[in-house]
Write a structure and sequence with these properties.
Length: about 190
């Protein structure tokens, strides 16, 4: 278990370093003219009459490499809607997962489902980019903030996401993080 925890910690360190580099290189400075009133992912989950599924658009994994050859995000999103997804998670992290903010915007154009921006969020500029590209919710990873890998506290980042009118899906990896999460204002 300790080896797994060190491995996760090591990957998070690298992912946060990559996020910082992407911030410095202007990746998150993209601003779209997407006009979108946020849709509640939490309500979509709570109002679902079957098992709620948040489908994920993911083309690459750092562990296994390329997952798909075709990058038809619109077609994938439409298939997910037809399949009954209550929301769609879109990887926007470009270094390890080969995600794209452009994918988020393209999915927004073809569906009204709530969209989750999935990235290693360490800076409010990333939230701004997600909001401008059509995100409804932002993934925040508890371990990043527990390790002090952001200049903001988890509470400050959650507040910032809420100020943008978006929801927070807070990812936790262990019982300790789960109990800490219960004392935050995360939506999910």
């Amino acid at each position: 278990l300790k080896t797994l925890e060190r491995s996760v910690s090591s990957f998070l360190d690298k992912a946060v370093q990559a996020a910082q580099t992407n911030l410095e290189n202007g990746y998150y400075n993209l601003v779209s003219t997407t006009l979108h009133k946020p849709v509640s992912l939490k309500k979509a989950i709570l109002n679902c009459k079957k098992i709620p599924v948040i489908a994920e658009i993911k083309f690459h994994s750092p562990a296994t490499g390329a997952l798909r050859e075709s990058i038809d995000v619109e077609g994938m999103a439409q298939a997910m809607v037809r399949g009954g997804a209550v929301g769609i998670s879109v990887l926007t992290e470009p270094t390890f997962f080969k995600g794209s903010l452009n994918h988020l915007q393209r999915v927004r154009r073809v569906t009204g489902l709530p969209l989750l921006m999935k990235d290693f969020i360490i800076n409010p500029r990333q939230v701004d980019a997600g909001a401008s590209m059509g995100a409804d919710a932002i993934l925040i990873i508890s371990a990043i903030y527990d390790a002090g890998l952001s200049q903001r506290s988890i509470g400050e980042m959650i507040d910032y996401v809420h100020q943008k009118g978006l929801e927070v899906l807070l990812e936790v990896h262990c019982r300790k993080e789960f109990h800490q999460a219960l004392h935050t204002d995360a939506d999910i």
